[in-house]
């Protein structure tokens, strides 16, 4: 039933009623199609099974083709049905009336999650359609959109926004800038669902520009905490899939995400937008693909756990831009350092060393092994052309073997070690155990190996998304560029670096991607104004502009000792369980301290722990580290170790900022002993009186 009292526009109530009927009818038809195709499929299968011995091979083949066809059509009609079901819940969220320059009357366009066509009338436009851009980009007045046939100029005469849930209109508003803000606030003040969700009805202008950017080959998005980078990257993918249906499908897109939990957290958005799920993987999995059977490597350490100085020095050095340029220089010199040709003689056939060297040099740009193989081909072809008497000449493989023996270093592992000698810093290469690389060596090794043996390139991936860009090193990008020579969307925030040992900046990324388009986002949507003002007092991100959504001010609570702190956390968990929020994050600085806290709390509270090994994100109470909480969000956050011991350096400041900006609605900091001086005392609450 429609509640018309909250809808100031009778025409909209009538329109929705009409749309609901049409959707209902279309859905019935779609259901019937699905059932019919299902019946046909089962009948064909049965017929083939029952008559297997009797049908002649030609007929069998025809039947199999038919079966495949029915299967494909069936899958398509299921998709149509599913989209209609989603539309039926919420058919559209906006209407724009647009009058083209050459027209006398405006046309209304309803915008929703998907296109809905009914008896040749286009009743709902997909949010990604060119005309839908009007809604995101303009207020009433002069406006335009870019259609496939060129720019259409005109006037936007009306803009309305709706919230329709289960086919019922919750509100309808004539839109202006203020109303848009109000709707955004309503959306943001919801408690979080289990996973990240689509934001199509409230995409902001600056976000829309990024989503609809089709020109940039590589787009780098630097955005403050909560600015919607991840959401936008996912919407951008959905947009590109829609716009380039023929050239790009979900299997052509790969998302590189920092860990499995984050991958799970974002996995909902693209299917919610009606596209197939996207393949997600991490840097370790990529390395596995390249190095399987070649060499092992240890996992990445928790960057926040203390390590010995030599280890830090190694990791730090290998994360710098300088390191990549040194590797590049080595790679440039490599052919001459490595390949010392001698005359190749077979009977009366001879290729002298200078000729061999010239051929080998001609193939610069290829990995050394491939150059050798190409040179062996040249020698073979030369001998063949000189072989007028049809004598025996060596085979290509034999020649290649001889060329290989002219290499001063025979394999990529020995070469990697030799690189550090060449550098005059052999101490920078340490193996934790036999045939195992330290994590910091994995990508440098792959980079050198690419120059020596080559690298497996992904032919399938046509668009790569890299999230949390600040957590990857220049050499990792160098390898990535070789593995994925395709357009990229790279996003992150250099204000949220998690690794204290990394030494590079956004400027360095500009050097790595000189052709890329760089955009910045400074408006922050996730947290209340109060939480963001607090976070800014921790780390003054000058450009950060919190959205004006108000809530409870963050509190810092002093606890007499650890026991009291635990009692306070448990009390907060009980309050949470009795309240309306859906997710509570208890965040600690390191993975180790998160595991210890989990041990204590899980004895009498229902909590889950997220570790680097976890693979999914759930609602309820989650205990985790800053490293693992990154990219996620919770209705409430308790930062359980806000004392001086944990947070005192400039680097800790950035960690504290990451932790605080995970909270959407409520934030509490607890400490015992000395409070961290990185937070302003103006937020202090009186020492606790426990009840
Ligand atoms: N236009 C919008 N409308 C509604 N919600 C939005 C909008 N933009 C962002 N959000 C919400 O803000 C929150 C933060 O978004 P997201 O996680 O994409 O930001 P981020 O920049 O990747 O954050 P961080 O770097 O802090 O992890 C999410 O809940 C998202 O749904």
UniProtKB/TrEMBL annotation:
Residues 202-528 form the UvrD-like helicase ATP-binding domain. It comes from the Bacteria. Pfam families: UvrD_C_2. InterPro entries: DNA_helicase_UvrD/REP, P-loop_NTPase, UvrD-like_ATP-bd, UvrD-like_helicase_C. The keyword Coiled coil applies. Residues 13-47 form a coiled coil. GO terms for molecular function: ATP binding. Keywords: ATP-binding, Coiled coil, Helicase, Hydrolase, Nucleotide-binding. Gene3D superfamilies: P-loop containing nucleotide triphosphate hydrolases (3.40.50.300). PROSITE patterns: UVRD_HELICASE_ATP_BIND. This is ATP-binding domain-containing protein. It comes from Hungatella hominis. The lineage of its organism: Bacteria, Bacillati, Bacillota, Clostridia, Lachnospirales.
């Amino acid at each position: 039933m429609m509640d018309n009292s909250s809808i100031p526009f009778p025409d909209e109530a009538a329109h929705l009623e009409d749309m609901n009927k049409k959707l209902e009818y279309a859905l019935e038809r779609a259901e019937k199609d699905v059932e019919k195709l299902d019946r046909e499929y089962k009948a064909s299968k049965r017929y083939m099974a029952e008559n297997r011995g009797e049908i002649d091979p030609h007929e069998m083949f025809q039947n199999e083709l038919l079966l495949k066809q029915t299967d494909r059509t069936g899958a398509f009609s299921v998709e149509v049905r599913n989209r209609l079901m989603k539309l039926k819940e919420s058919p559209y969220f906006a209407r724009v009336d647009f009058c083209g320059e050459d027209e006398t009357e405006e046309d209304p366009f309803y915008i929703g999650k998907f296109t809905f066509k009914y008896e040749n009338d286009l009743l709902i436009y997909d949010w990604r359609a060119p005309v839908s851009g009007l809604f995101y980009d303009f207020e009433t007045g002069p406006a335009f959109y870019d259609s496939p046939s060129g720019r259409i100029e005109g006037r936007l005469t009306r803009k309305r926004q709706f919230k329709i849930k289960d086919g019922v209109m919750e509100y309808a508003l004539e839109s202006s800038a203020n109303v848009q803000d109000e709707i955004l606030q309503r959306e943001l003040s919801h408690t979080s669902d289990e996973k990240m969700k689509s934001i199509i009805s409230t995409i902001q202008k600056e976000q829309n520009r990024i989503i609809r950017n089709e020109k940039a080959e590589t787009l780098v998005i630097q955005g403050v905490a909560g600015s919607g980078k991840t959401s936008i990257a996912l919407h951008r993918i959905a947009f590109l899939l829609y716009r380039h249906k023929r050239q790009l499908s979900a299997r052509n897109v790969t998302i590189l995400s920092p860990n499995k939990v984050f991958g799970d957290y974002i996995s909902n958005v693209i299917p919610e937008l009606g596209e197939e799920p996207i393949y997600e993987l991490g840097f370790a999995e990529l390395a596995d693909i390249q190095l399987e059977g070649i060499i092992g490597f240890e996992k990445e350490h928790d960057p926040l756990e203390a390590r010995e100085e030599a280890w830090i020095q190694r990791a730090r050095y290998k994360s710098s831009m300088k390191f990549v340029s040194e590797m590049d220089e080595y790679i440039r010199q490599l052919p001459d350092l490595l390949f010392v040709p001698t005359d190749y003689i077979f009977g009366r056939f001879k290729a002298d060393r200078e000729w061999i060297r010239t051929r080998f040099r001609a193939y610069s740009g290829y990995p050394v092994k491939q150059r050798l193989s190409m040179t062996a081909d040249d020698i073979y072809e030369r001998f063949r052309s000189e072989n007028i008497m049809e004598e025996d000449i060596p085979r290509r493989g034999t020649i290649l073997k001889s060329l290989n023996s002219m290499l001063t270093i025979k394999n990529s592992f020995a070469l990697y070690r030799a690189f550090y000698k060449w550098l005059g810093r052999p101490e920078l290469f340490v193996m934790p155990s036999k045939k195992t690389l330290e994590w910091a060596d994995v990508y440098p090794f792959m980079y050198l190996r690419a120059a020596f043996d080559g690298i497996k390139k992904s032919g399938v991936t046509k668009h790569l998304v890299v999230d949390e860009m600040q957590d990857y090193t220049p050499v990792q990008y160098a390898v990535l560029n070789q593995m994925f020579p395709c357009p990229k969307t790279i996003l992150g925030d250099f204000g949220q670096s998690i690794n204290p040992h990394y030494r590079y900046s956004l400027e360095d990324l500009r050097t790595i991607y000189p052709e890329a388009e760089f955009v910045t986002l400074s408006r922050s949507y996730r947290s209340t104004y109060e939480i963001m003002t607090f976070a800014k007092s921790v780390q003054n991100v000058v450009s950060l502009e919190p959205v004006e959504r108000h809530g409870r001010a963050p509190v810092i609570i002093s606890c007499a000792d650890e026991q009291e702190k635990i009692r306070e956390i448990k009390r907060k968990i009980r309050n949470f369980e009795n309240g309306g929020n859906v997710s509570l994050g208890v965040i600690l600085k390191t993975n180790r301290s998160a595991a210890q806290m989990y041990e204590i709390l899980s004895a009498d509270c229902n909590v889950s722990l997220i570790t680097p090994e976890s693979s999914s994100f759930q609602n309820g109470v989650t205990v985790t580290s800053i490293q693992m909480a990154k990219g996620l969000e919770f209705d409430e956050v308790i930062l359980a170790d806000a004392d001086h011991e944990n947070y005192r350096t400039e680097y800790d400041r950035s960690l504290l900022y990451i932790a605080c900006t995970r909270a959407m609605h409520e934030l509490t900091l607890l400490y015992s002993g000395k409070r961290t001086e990185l937070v302003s005392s103006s937020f202090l609450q009186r020492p606790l009186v426990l009840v």
